Amino acid sequence: MRIPFIERVVQKVYLGVQQLNVRVDSKTKDNVFAGVMVAVQFQVIEEKAADSYYLLENAEMQIRSFVQDIIRTSLAKLTLDAAFESKDQIANEVEEALASSMSAYGYRIVNTLITDIAPDDKVRIAMNEINAAQRQRAAAVELAEATKIRVVKEAEAAAESRRLAGEGFAAERRAIVNGLTDQLGKLRQAGVDPEAAEVLLLMSQYFDTLTSLGAGASSKVLFVPSDPQGVAMFGQQIRTSIMGGFEATK
């Protein structure tokens, strides 16, 4: 209430929350110029409405001055990367300082936000190039590691394959030798002359080999001795070769 002709309304004060956007251009510790966007939300304290009118002529200008001073002081202590990581911390510092100073003038600081930190365009381009180079280097390292693992695994697989093939070949030769030895023993037990028994087994192996070669898709013509003397010489050569293989196997 007011007394007519004695009291009068000099100003209507808005008690709702207001927002002031402030841009502060400053330099970081690593000499990078950046623009910091700060959003300050404030309102008049109802009980101190008169103070907000009589004690402070321009609240927005006062808030702007405080924000610029605090931001420039804080940013000068941080590198650009650290400033991005410390946005919330800087905003809290601004809010605490504003709340302490503006309370005396009848204003409450509701919230303070740092909405953006924008470095110079050249710096931003350089930062993007650095990030891209780091990602490419990491990708190259991962690719090289994958290639290394693949090559090692292929080498291990090839070595294992050769080892198994060698074991299989050795087992096959042992089986052949054991079979021939067993057959030779049976022929001797049956009273067959030992030398004739050996020739019989060798010729059997020889003709089995010819049969296998002739069954191949790429085999067209096989030349073998036809006269008795040639067959005898050929049989002696086979005997010498195979017996030499047996001795090597033993």
Note down, in words, how this protein is organized:
α2 (59-75) runs antiparallel to α4, α5 packs antiparallel against α6 (194-215) and α6 crosses α7. A hairpin with a 5-residue loop joins β1 (18-27) and β2 (33-44). The chain has 7 helices and 3 strands; from the N terminus they run ββααααβααα. The chain is α+β, with helices and mostly antiparallel strands and 250 residues long.
List the helices and strands and how they pair.
Elements: E1 18-27, E2 33-44, H1 49-54, H2 59-75, H3 80-85, H4 87-102, E3 107-119, H5 121-189, H6 194-215, H7 228-249
Antiparallel strand pairs: 1-2, 2-3
Helix pairs in contact: 2-4, 5-6, 6-7
Which keywords apply here?
alpha+beta, 250 residues, 14% strand, 7 helices
Overall average pLDDT: 77
Q: Calculate the terminal CA-CA distance, rounded to whole Å.
A: 125 Å
Portion in beta strands: 5-15%
Strand order of the largest sheet: 1-2-3
Task: Count every helix, treating DSSP H or I runs of 4 or more residues as helices.
Answer: 7
Q: What is the rounded Rg? A: 50 Å
Strand and helix order: EEHHHHEHHH
